[in-house]
Amino acid sequence: MSRVVVNVMPKPEILDPQGKAVTGALQRLGFHGLSVRQGKRFEIEVDGEVTDEVLAEIRDAAEKLLANTVIESFEVVAE
Amino acid sequence: MSRVVVNVMPKPEILDPQGKAVTGALQRLGFHGLSVRQGKRFEIEVDGEVTDEVLAEIRDAAEKLLANTVIESFEVVAE
């Protein structure tokens, strides 16, 4: 079993209300000087080895299902 | 500005309905042999340098606010 991670984040030009809420909550808790953006992390267990074809398949899956590419960007990382 | 990332994932012994739904959807789309767990990724911009104190502060913030440590584990990564 190998692992591939897909990180999905709101694009920089997109407002991120979840991140804004977390940033505000941190400040109220006394954590200052931190600015947060919130995204998603998908840990994908792959049967067998992580070949270039598997990575291409996962990139395809990320575009079709894991990320909304209108408002989100993603990266695929083999771990 | 420096960046620290906090990854929050459901603990292995905890059911992950979101991940299960994504795994099922991928199979229906024709992506086979992939098993997904879904978590959160927080990208934190820090004013100034990432010192050991800043990392300790962010670890504290993760425990108090970003992760529910009853059901989730987290890791702090300086990028």
UniProtKB/TrEMBL annotation, chains A, B:
One of its GO terms (cellular component) is cytoplasm. PANTHER family: PHOSPHORIBOSYLFORMYLGLYCINAMIDINE SYNTHASE SUBUNIT PURS. The keyword Cytoplasm applies. It is found in: Cytoplasm. Part of the phosphoribosylformylglycinamidine synthase complex involved in the purines biosynthetic pathway. Catalyzes the ATP-dependent conversion of formylglycinamide ribonucleotide (FGAR) and glutamine to yield formylglycinamidine ribonucleotide (FGAM) and glutamate. The FGAM synthase complex is composed of three subunits. PurQ produces an ammonia molecule by converting glutamine to glutamate. PurL transfers the ammonia molecule to FGAR to form FGAM in an ATP-dependent manner. It comes from Tessaracoccus oleiagri. Belongs to the PurS family. Coiled coil: none annotated. The lineage of its organism: Bacteria, Bacillati, Actinomycetota, Actinomycetes, Propionibacteriales. It comes from the Bacteria. This is Phosphoribosylformylglycinamidine synthase subunit PurS. Pathway: Purine metabolism; IMP biosynthesis via de novo pathway; 5-amino-1-(5-phospho-D-ribosyl)imidazole from N(2)-formyl-N(1)-(5-phospho-D-ribosyl)glycinamide: step 1/2. Its EC number is 6.3.5.3. The keyword Transit peptide does not apply. GO terms for molecular function: ATP binding; phosphoribosylformylglycinamidine synthase activity. GO terms for biological process: 'de novo' IMP biosynthetic process. SUPFAM superfamilies: PurS-like (SSF82697). Gene3D superfamilies: Phosphoribosylformylglycinamidine synthase subunit PurS (3.30.1280.10). Part of the FGAM synthase complex composed of 1 PurL, 1 PurQ and 2 PurS subunits. It is an enzyme of class 6 (ligase). Keywords: ATP-binding, Cytoplasm, Ligase, Nucleotide-binding, Purine biosynthesis. It catalyses: N(2)-formyl-N(1)-(5-phospho-beta-D-ribosyl)glycinamide + L-glutamine + ATP + H2O = 2-formamido-N(1)-(5-O-phospho-beta-D-ribosyl)acetamidine + L-glutamate + ADP + phosphate + H(+). Pfam families: PurS.
